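Task: sequence in, structure out. Protein: Probable RNA-binding protein 46.
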Amino acid sequence: MNEENLDVTNGCSKVRTGTQNEAALLALMEKTGYNMVQENGQRKFGGPPPGWEGPPPPRGCEVFVGKIPRDMYEDELVPVFERAGKIYEFRLMMEFSGENRGYAFVMYTTKEEAQLAIRILNNYEIRPGKFIGVCVSLDNCRLFIGAIPKEKKKEEILDEMKKVTEGVVDVIVYPSATDKTKNRGFAFVEYESHRAAAMARRKLIPGTFQLWGHTIQVDWADPEKEVDEETMQRVKVLYVRNLMISTTEETIKAEFNKFKPGAVERVKKLRDYAFVHFFNREDAVAAMSVMNGKCIDGASIEVTLAKPVNKESTWRQHLNGQISPNSENLLVFANKEEGHQKTLGKPPSLPARLNGQHSPSPPEIERCTYPFFPGTKLTPISMYSLKSNHFNSAVMHLDYYCNKNNWAPPEYYLYSTTSQDGKVLLVYKIVIPAIANGSQSYFMPDKLCTTLEDAKELAAQFTLLHLVSSCYLREGLTRSSRGQKTTISVAAQ
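Result:
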């Protein structure tokens, strides 16, 4: 065993008391043949494993592991994660004291092994009462560049980014929804590696950097959500973007039916993008190949398979300020302006966040305070006169939309129980009086919370999620929006 590895285990023994703990790590390395080194606040097991030849595994092979007990180390963790497949590298984040920091990254040799790890180990009880979280980890190689002059073409933006940063692979530019000769005022820049993207962001981020005389906005592009191959094999809905705003659902259906009459079940169009539903997956795949790049009403369209999104996680992403593209399980708030967006492939006219934040740096721009000067004139208003982008919680959104639909306010009923360790756990039941006589008389989440605020927010999220997937919100919001300046609708389920 080399000297570096001995330093690691010796360092562990200072924190992990007793020779048995030190011996456990030594035994793991001797059994597996993997090296273990500690550097930059993390301890690496493998990377590469013994006998590995060729480049590291591609993107999508790494998972993030959270909620790891602080006194748990590789000798316990590695055998658990080996159940899903061969580990290329296990990186455990370490405190200066020698405890772990509660999270790690596990890179497998294939994407299939990483997906299996997520399926079998997410919410796995790694110790009695201790459940770990496992999800996909992606090295982000894309930057969002905002405030780009709208007359600039892709080639000009690509050349300019190559001049000022290194490692540029490609630039993704979307045409304006209203004028296809112009861009939308932003672009996505793809770099050869996460490190290259990070170095470019560091160079461009200060706010004083200009392109063509314009101070640009720079941030990480929100990574596109990964969907497992098994799920994608069942998709029979196409996502069509870059349509003309004037193009109708009837026109889209007729164009997609040309290659096989009667293949299209229905079409749902939202501004300049649409979802085309097919009766059979085979027809959807064939239509994607035929129609991608075709012109409809003078616009060259882009066609891909729509990506299904878990409804519960999608709602959490709404509230956290992130959303996945190509999904119909979304509330759509139509807006006349083309806001900025950070997610590659996101329908650009779709405001990306339920709380109305469109900027590349929403926390700094939307959630801030301003000085109150003496003599400032204040006008009393009702919260219901505001727009939805003024609210940042599910509780407020639920109250707001009940009012907009001319429903009575939601009624909250609090319940409690006691956990095995003596904690008081809380849950709210919500009743919407306007629909209480229907098949769904109340809404109650299947999770308990330790704080009143969390319980109320979770119950509101749960209620909104179910309203979205029911006809109540779809029909109610459509009725309430007629004749109003702001249009609210729900994409077809």
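The chain has 14 helices and 24 strands.
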